[in-house]
Design goal:
This protein is of the alpha/beta class. It has helices at about 10-25, 35-45, 60-75, 105-125, 160-180, 200-205, 210-225, 250-260, and strands spanning about 5, 25-30, 50-55, 80-85, 130-135, 185-190, 230-235, 235-240.
Amino acid sequence: MSTILITGATSGLGRYVAFALVRSGHLVLAHGRDPGRTESLVAELRSEGSAEGFVADLASLAQVRELGAEVAGAHPELDVLINNAGVGGGSSDSGRELSADGHELRLAVNYLAPVALTRALLPTLKAGDGPARIVNVGSAGQEPVDFDDVGFTRGYAGFAAYCRSKFALAAHTFTLAEELADTGVSVNVLHPATFMDTAMVREGGVAPWSTVADGAPGVLALATEESGTGGYFDGTRRARAHEATYDKEVQKRLAAITNQLIAP
């Protein structure tokens, strides 16, 4: 069975997936932001299988790197990284927010944190005996990043910021897949399901269209089955992301800006 790290495991889709993986016999490394909720989750998971907890605030790149170092040190046999944690568009009256590092919050948590955590754990994922997998939980909601205003300081809107962060995550996934060719590490991105019944969706004032159970099969398939690399999936179906995410110039500009934003 595999050793699998899943971020944002204390609620919503992450919690559902964590239990499904534990029940299938995998060792689940469950990340949460709140120590109490993470400890409680791990106690529940251990009643059904093997689990460990890790705490970090993904709005802090320093804590993201610490999380990566802690996981790598404790589990050099890591097989799968599921970048699931995220911040939604927020309520209708919430304004632009900043991360601990001064970045626009949705870009920071939904994009910069997964990139930084993935980079911290790549040596561990590459060093394993078998194939390793990275699963990026994205969204069908994608909007091109404005490279002249990456921090979204002009005309800010929470849902648009969310869509920009998920666009960036998809474009990054395709770039990373090429970089990791022939390393034994695959990376894919997916839209699990539309407007699942989660706190994130309800906070945005949207009536849920689906459940976390609807969103889980796509994540579980990419985490546990051979699905190729560099793909975008709508649930369990291979699909197409926003066309601009495949643009090499967009990918190149995004990579350059990303390197600047996440530099220690």
